[in-house]
Amino acid sequence: MMAGASAPSPFYPMLQQEIGFPAAGLTGIFAVYTIAPLASLLAMGPLSDHIGRRPVISGGFVPIALGPLLFWQAGDVMGLMVARVLQGIAAGLLLSALSAAIVDLEPKGRRGSASVRNSVIPLTGLATGVLVADVLMDATAGAEANVFGSLVVAYALFASSSDSFRDRAAA
């Protein structure tokens, strides 16, 4: 999820040139993503405590899948901003629910291991997303399709496979 949140970043200069928007537009695209996850965490962070991890995780992967799809098809700055807002809202929702799920599934004898996972995994994902997207931009002609198409498919699969999480959590 976090890899997908950072994957669009290497495409911004190319999109800026193709679409033709000013530096302020680029700043705006970055800015909306910083606000959206924070607002989402504040407003919906405890949601999975009330309605359950599975519905929040499944539901969170739907809007996050729309983000890369919108990036892939965007023709203006507003489209890119909407994609980032969707990604940000879903990332905030998923980050809280997935972090809570990691704590829920923490082995009884290994208390504290969840905090390490919840610290390292998101940062590793952010770094991986930028790196993989950048490598694909340099190595392939269809990098947008490869990156954004793969993310849409992966997120759709994650949303539909949340049943396995429920089964493991109940065990």
3D structure, described in words:
By secondary structure, the protein is an all-alpha fold. The protein has a single domain (2-170), classed as Up-down Bundle (Growth Hormone, Chain: A). The chain is 84% helix and 0% strand. It is built from 9 helices and no strands. Helix 6 packs antiparallel against helix 7 (113-139). The longest helix has 28 residues, at 77-104. The radius of gyration is 17 Å and the shape is globular.
Defining traits:
Growth Hormone, Chain: A; mainly alpha; 171 residues; 84% helix; single chain; globular
Largest sheet: none
In total, how many domains does the architecture comprise? 1
User: Low-confidence stretches at least 5 residues in length (pLDDT < 50)?
Assistant: none
Beta-strand level of the residues, as a percent range? Answer: under 5%
Percent helix, as a range, is over 70%
Oligomer kind:
single chain
Domain Major facilitator superfamily (MFS) profile: 1-171
GO molecular function: transmembrane transporter activity
Protein name: MFS family permease
Transmembrane segments: 20-44, 56-75, 81-103, 115-133, 139-158
